[in-house]
């Protein structure tokens, strides 16, 4: 896998309206699934009698979190919609690896992007769904294990020119292999889906991609 960019690769993968449907299902919005970056704030709330998971965000607090944070994303979302499930399945078939989906939201452009230039231990395919985001990718680092030291990603600086520098619009996709430093800069409010997969994970434990349909 090598960095590449394709325009119009996957149109209409996910919309703001579809995200609204997802985040309003409170049991999906557990504290373990919602990842927030930005100003640290502690929230507390009371749960009603019917609440099945006390650690799921109430919608009012979740909206505040999304609107005020620099970046918010949701993990374990590879079955969030039929289209995302199918896209993940195609990646699993192509690369013979387990694939997840992370839904990224950037509604507030004021905070500095928390990830800065960094590289990951997972390969990623990212699809821009709404808005415009600039992605820069640099050549892979030569000593990733030394830099990682047990971590899943590493923030870094570089004065080298990127090997890929593109503005992604809805439907565009970018492939970012592990150990390749990259930077995402949102030009507008952003909605995107990242599909991470790790070559070390046992591919025999893939997600059940069967999709239930009732007419």
Description:
This protein has 215 residues and is of the alpha+beta class. The protein has a single domain, classed as Cupin (Jelly Rolls, Sandwich), CATH 2.60.120. The protein has helices at residues 16-23, 59-68, 82-95, 144-148, and strands at residues 4-6, 34-37, 71-74, 102-106, 118-120, 123-130, 133-137, 153-155, 164-168, 173-176, 182-186, 190-197. The radius of gyration is 18 Å and the shape is globular. The relative contact order is 0.24.
Give the gist of this structure.
The protein has about 220 residues and is of the alpha+beta class. About 15% of the residues lie in helices and about 25% in strands.
Label this structure with key terms.
215 residues; alpha+beta; Jelly Rolls; three-stranded antiparallel β-sheet; 4 helices; 17% helix
Whole-number radius of gyration?
18 Å
Number of domains: 1
H/E element order: EHEHEHEEEEHEEEEE
Strand order, sheet with most strands: 1-10-6-12-4-3-2
Sequence-ordered SSE layout with sheet pairings:
Elements: E1 4-6, H1 16-23, E2 34-37, H2 59-68, E3 71-74, H3 82-95, E4 102-106, E5 118-120, E6 123-130, E7 133-137, H4 144-148, E8 153-155, E9 164-168, E10 173-176, E11 182-186, E12 190-197
Antiparallel strand pairs: 1-10, 2-3, 3-4, 4-12, 5-8, 6-10, 6-12, 7-9, 7-11
């Amino acid at each position: 896998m090598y960095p590449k960019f394709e325009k119009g690769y996957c149109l209409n993968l996910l919309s703001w309206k579809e995200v609204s449907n997802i985040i309003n299902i409170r049991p999906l919005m557990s504290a373990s699934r919602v990842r927030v970056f930005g100003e640290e704030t502690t929230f507390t709330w009371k749960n009603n009698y019917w609440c099945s998971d006390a650690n799921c965000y109430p919608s009012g607090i979740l909206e505040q979190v999304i609107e005020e944070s620099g970046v918010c994303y949701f993990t374990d979302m590879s079955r969030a919609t039929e289209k995302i499930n199918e896209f993940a399945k195609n990646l699993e078939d192509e690369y013979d690896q387990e694939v997840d989906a992370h839904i990224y939201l950037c509604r507030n452009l004021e905070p500095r992007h928390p990830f800065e230039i960094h590289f990951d231990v997972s390969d990623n395919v990212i699809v821009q769904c709404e808005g415009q985001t600039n992605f820069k990718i640099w050549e892979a680092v030569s000593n990733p294990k030394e830099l990682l030291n047990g971590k899943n990603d590493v923030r870094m600086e570089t004065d080298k020119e990127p090997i890929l520098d593109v503005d992604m619009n809805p439907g565009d996709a970018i492939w970012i292999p592990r150990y390749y430093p990259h930077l995402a800069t949102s030009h507008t409010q952003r909605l995107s889906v990242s599909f991470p997969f790790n070559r070390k994970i046992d591919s025999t434990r893939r997600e059940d991609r069967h999709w239930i349909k009732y007419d």
